[in-house]
Amino acid sequence: MISEAEFKQLFDTHFDAIRTFIFYTDTASDMAQDVFMKVWEKRKQLNNDNLKSLLYKMANDLVISNYRKNTSRSDFEQSMSLRDGSEAASPEDELLFEELASSYVRRWRRCPKRSGRSS
């Protein structure tokens, strides 16, 4: 178990390094905060061994996940613009996209966790 003081020290020591590691332009700080939020939520199950490695593993998984999400969104937006021949998506297309995206997120969260999937 990680105490509040140990977590604060972990955060103060590694936050900037994790944010730099992520280096995902505007969202690096938000993503680094997400990593530390996950550690905070799981602090009762963790011990002080290999926390630095865990932070980097979680940050790497988050970057990959975010990249895949952005790539999927970009691919969908491109296919929508190619479908109707215009560059701008119509309001209906935007609504369809948002519904589809939220449906994927809901289904993803209901999937059982597998050993290769980070949460």
What's this, in brief?
The chain has 119 residues and is mostly helical. The chain has helices at residues 4-22, 28-41, 51-84, 91-110. The longest helix has 34 residues, at 51-84.
Description:
- The protein has 119 residues and is mostly helical.
- The protein has four helices and no strands.
- Helix 1 packs antiparallel against helix 2 and helix 1 (4-22) crosses helix 3.
- It is elongated.
- The two termini are 19 Å apart.
- The model has no long low-confidence stretch (mean pLDDT 80).
The main pleated sheet reads as:
none
% residues in beta strands: under 5%
Estimate percent helicity.
Answer: over 70%
Point out poorly predicted stretches.
none
Derived structural class: mainly alpha
Question: Treating each run of at least 4 consecutive H or I residues as one helix, how many helices?
Answer: 4
**Mean pLDDT metric:** 80
- End-to-end separation: 19 Å
Number of strands: 0
Order of helices and strands: HHHH
Rounded to an integer in angstroms, the radius of gyration calculated over CA atoms is: 18 Å
Backbone shape: elongated
Task: List the main descriptive attributes of the protein structure presented here.
single chain, 119 residues, mainly alpha, 4 helices, elongated
List the SSEs and their pairings.
Layout lengths: L3 H19 L5 H14 L9 H34 L6 H20 L9
Helix pairs in contact: 1-2, 1-3, 2-3
